Amino acid sequence: MAPGEFHSNNWRQSCAEQCPPEYEGSGQSSRRCPTNNGSRDITGPLSVLAIVQYILLWERLQDVSTTRGVADQICWRWTFSQMYSAKSAYNMFFCGSTRLPGADLLWKTWTPPRVKLFMYTVMHQRTWTVERRKRHGLQDNDTCILCNQSPEHIEHLLLHCPIAKKIWWETLSAVGLSSRFVNDTLGTFDTWTAMRTGLPKQAKKAMDSLFMLVAWHLWKERNSRTFNGKAASVAEISDRIMDEARAWVAAGAKNLGSVMSRE
Ligand SMILES: [Zn+2]
Q1: What is the pLDDT of residues 202-258, one digit of tens each?
Q2: Which residue, 49, 68, 139, 158, shows the most beta carbons closer than 10 Å to its own?
Q3: Which of 71, 73, 75 is nearest to 2 (CA)?
Q4: What is the CA(153)–ligand 1 centre distance, in A?
């Protein structure tokens, strides 16, 4: 910005547009920054509005310093060197964002996209369980349709429900991983982590796929009972899980195949 252009330059919204009375009250020959002796340019009586705008303008410009005779230059504020880089611009878009625990694990795991999307909603607590529907005033009853004992919260449905625990036990036993069974009331990601921690690398990846597969089938069984009135036994659900696990292996889930061979 050239000297004298402070009020009319559009670098931080034109002061002439933002504060017309204050602008008119400033000197006609040299309009300068109010924090840099520009107040001397104001002549004549000022209206109350002009005084208020002057004070607001002063507050906005507290961190601005101008040097007489030195032209302004555009600086990139997102790097220490103040030089633009595509990386810093990309990072800027994610300022203030929060990371979902397990997000990386979720997207790296071999599963069909629809299962990943389902797990994404689970980890964000966004699945429409009856407990959530009741919380939103959409229905009165929030009882778990699998056990008929507790509110159907997503973590109850997928992890803590007695029926879900039986299915977890059956599935993990079938692939020789019964020692990874978690009989605790941890959250979804903590349970997933507890199941995979300590396993060899390939078995870990297999467990990741298996975790999402079992959760997916528990959700499907819940939907079948809720919307179609059809209930399957624990043995039937476990058989379906193993059938789909074989299908996933045939479709390319190599790591899952490493534990399926233990059947
Ligand atoms: Zn239940």
Answers
A1: 999 999 999 999 999 999 999 999 999 999 999 999 999 999 999 999 999 889 988
A2: 158
A3: 71
A4: 9
